[in-house]
Specification:
The structure is a single chain. The radius of gyration is 19 Å and the shape is elongated. The protein has a two-stranded antiparallel sheet. Helix 1 packs antiparallel against helix 2 and helix 2 runs antiparallel to helix 3. About 10% of the residues are buried. About 75% of the residues lie in helices and about 5% in strands. It is mainly α. The N and C termini lie far apart (about 65 Å).
């Protein structure tokens, strides 16, 4: 097997893992929200957004890694590097926006105190 073919295959595998991370995250967040709703454990919506956002962030990071591997290692032309730079900029902006939505802070800011889930009072 040729080196370029192997690297291309690795990039495709990482692409698939990135998409799977997002899909599994959506399914998990939905099931978690449903169970929390049935058990009356709050917050439901805030936790759903946080779990979903983290899954999307993970998927985006993997997709960026796959793009870098496929572009730089396989076809390092000026055009492909420019396209990669644009893709990375867009995905970085999306990642920062999601991080702000999920955690309420920019990635370079210090972490706040961890959020605690509160259970509904037992009637």
């Amino acid at each position: 097997m040729e080196f370029g073919t192997i690297i291309q295959a690795i990039g495709e595998i990482i692409d698939i893992v990135g998409v799977l991370a997002i899909v599994i995250g959506v399914i998990y967040a939905t099931i978690d929200a449903a169970f929390r709703g049935l058990r009356r454990r709050y917050p439901i919506y805030e936790r759903f957004r946080r779990v979903l956002g983290r899954a999307i962030l993970l998927g985006l990071e993997l997709l960026v890694a796959a793009d870098i591997i496929k572009t730089v290692a396989v076809t390092p032309t000026l055009d492909s590097v420019v396209v990669l730079a644009i893709i990375v900029l867009i995905r970085t902006f999306l990642s920062w926006s999601l991080e702000l939505e999920v955690s309420g802070r920019w990635p370079w800011q210090k972490r706040a105190a961890p959020m605690v889930d509160v259970e509904a009072p037992v009637e």
